[in-house]
Specification:
Two copies of one chain form a homodimer. Chain A is mainly alpha-helical and about 290 residues long. Helix content of chain A is about 70%, strand content about 0%. The first copy, chain A, is built from 15 helices and two strands. Chain A has a two-stranded antiparallel ribbon with strand order 1-2. In chain A, strand 1 and strand 2 form a beta hairpin. Chain A is globular, with a radius of gyration of 18 Å. The model of chain A has no long low-confidence stretch (mean pLDDT about 95).
């Protein structure tokens, strides 16, 4: 995990425009928003899915690095925009002032916009598969996962849910979009950059990703209840303060924890047919559910 | 022109998610921001460049429609974000209330984000060239044109220029990014979707696009000085009020008009080697410089 995190950091460092290139302040703010923080869950999933898809063949780590960077650009852009005053109005992220606090609102808006473009640029300007038609498909996967029927749509549903009482299926629907879509894309893109997986394997990997994506959010809600702002590096108790439904508010703490454990088992079950090549994906499911931050 | 505009409108209508699909309010706002307005200059350029590149061969209008829609999604997203209170804080666009006035700020932010994703989705989910490797190149062209070294970067330079005295080269540098990058991409993408132009032709088309892109902005500045808000459908005199440098403020009205005319001639000159297939591009250069709105 530390190796993939370091690789991701180094590749982001290389592909984010230097703060000495005009427009300097925008590039400085883009680097601020992306570098030196985050668990890099999405690149970790992409690398592990690449290994699972490659099986006994060698993966090309350079291809997976690019995929990981593109995913982090989308993820970081979503955080920068979500933190804006018109959205969650948050001042702390990854233990640092949020982008609009450190710079200004207009710059933070353009940082998010530019990071989204950069994600697609990265997927389009490097060779990621032997077959360019599959690379076009990868670009489509990232676009759909990011857009109004994926991550951005989930954010819209999240905003609309403030002050609402949601059922468990409604809460799930929101998170399948808000966090789940990009986590599924991480696995789907990693698998394609790692090799040429069979449709059957892709389907199992996708089921794994759906479970892990949802588990990730359930655990986030549990940690938000049980941890401190210092441990998480972001404001805790914000959802409750904003009157937003969470798995803890809807299910209670004990049932939320049980759900996370159930999803972890379901994710591991989906990997059983993939053999030892899926070992790292299994470890990541454990990491995501058992983490403390 | 009217035929391409109608085609673009119909294709956008088809590919923008319906307002009956969840998240409904986001989809309704996306449609509000894109449909029923605008001159569709970028699709017009893409179609004309496609014809110029095809020469005597038949173009596939379906491919150019998709390219035109992707360009309009990027353009509309940039307008929605530029109009936000933290940016230009504008209330009128295409004769209607701006997106954040009609809906709300958070929705307008997500509208822009989702329209950017949709642009890349459109270019990735339809077959636009016989060679998928060229399609990957098209996705890269759009990403670079939209990002921090293209349109979004131009917007950052624009923000930083408020209250500054710029030289003509500095003003040109700003507009080459802010408006020019997407106009160049329109011609580059249209040419590739229209056929397989030679490198020499691509270079001439790109020179044409650079001239037209700059002329477009010069004429915008002239119209902003000479027209009324009712004619333009957007607030006039805003740049002067915001203390932003324009071609008129830097060159004066007469020299700005002369520059637009010079750029028009330069654009037409670049087309001379392309023969009658470039007729529509020539007409568009005239339209852009001689327009009154």
């Amino acid at each position: 995990m530390a190796r993939v995190q370091a690789r991701t950091e180094a590749t982001l460092e290389r592909f984010l425009p230097s703060a000495t290139i005009a427009p300097q302040r925008l590039h400085e703010a883009m680097r601020y928003a992306v570098l030196g923080g985050g668990k890099r869950i999405r690149p970790l999933l992409a690398f592990a899915a690449g290994e699972a898809a490659a099986g006994v063949r060698q993966i090309d780590p350079g291809r997976l690095e690019i995929v990981g960077c593109a995913l982090e650009c989308i993820h970081a852009y979503s955080l920068v925009h979500d933190d804006l005053p018109s959205m969650d109005n948050d001042v702390l992220r990854r233990g640092k002032p949020t982008c609009h606090v450190e710079f200004d609102e207009a710059t933070a808006l353009l940082v998010g916009d530019s990071l989204q473009s950069l994600a697609f640029q990265l997927l389009a300007e490097h060779r990621l598969c032997d077959d360019p038609a599959v690379q076009v498909e990868m670009l489509k996967i990232l676009a759909v996962a990011s857009g109004s029927r994926g991550m951005a749509g989930g954010q819209a549903i999240d905003l609309a849910s403030v002050g609402q009482t949601l059922t468990v299926p409604e809460l799930e629907y929101m998170h399948i979009h808000k966090t789940g879509a990009l986590i599924r894309a991480s696995v789907a893109l990693g698998a394609r950059a790692g090799g040429a997986p069979s449709p059957g394997h892709l389907e199992r990997l996708d089921h794994y990703a759906k479970c892990v994506g949802l588990a990730f959010q359930v655990v986030d809600d549990v940690l938000d209840q049980e941890s401190s702002t210092a441990t998480l590096g972001k404001t805790v108790g914000k959802d409750a303060a904003n009157n937003k439904p969470t798995y803890v508010s809807v299910l209670g703490l004990a049932r939320a924890k049980a759900l996370a454990e159930e999803l972890r088992k379901d994710a591991l079950e989906a990997l059983s047919a993939l053999g030892s090549a899926a070992q790292r994906l299994a470890e990541l499911a454990d990491f995501i559910v058992l983490r403390k931050f």
